[in-house]
Amino acid sequence: MRMNKIRRPKVIAYRNRYDIMMKILEHVDIGVDKGKLMKTAEIAPELFEAYLKLLMEKKLLKVAEVKESLGEIFKVTDKGMDFMFHYRIMQDLTK
């Protein structure tokens, strides 16, 4: 007799504010447009806009250039690189 597989709901891991900021900064590291960045952040568009604004206000992220076809291209600032470095250290310490 064949048993039907029970579908389990996707487990959504809790991400704190810094996890989300880190995910955005990691993907900006190579210089990326807003559309691709929003997809990789895996958060709602409204939240993405809020985090993008926060990162720019804190000077962790900047607009490197504006391309006609892609729009704004973002880059991580030196301060943003420092944030990523120290965040990774903190993650290692808490494992």
Description:
By secondary structure, the protein is an alpha+beta fold. The protein has a single domain (17-93), classed as Winged helix-like DNA-binding domain superfamily/Winged helix DNA-binding domain (Arc Repressor Mutant, subunit A). The chain has helices spanning 17-28, 34-41, 45-57, 78-93; strands spanning 32-33, 61-67, 71-76. Strands 1-3-2 form a 3-stranded antiparallel sheet. A hairpin with a 3-residue loop joins strand 2 (61-67) and strand 3. Helix 1 packs across helix 4. The radius of gyration is 17 Å and the shape is globular. The chain starts with 16 loop residues before the first helix and ends with a helix.
Keywords:
95 residues, Arc Repressor Mutant, subunit A, three-stranded antiparallel beta sheet, 4 helices, globular
Distance from N terminus to C terminus (CA atoms, Å) equals: 44 Å
Q: How many domains would you count in the coordinates?
A: 1
According to CATH, the homologous superfamily is Winged helix-like DNA-binding domain superfamily/Winged helix DNA-binding domain
Separate helix tally:
4
Strand content: 15-25%
Any idea what the radius of gyration is? Answer: 17 Å
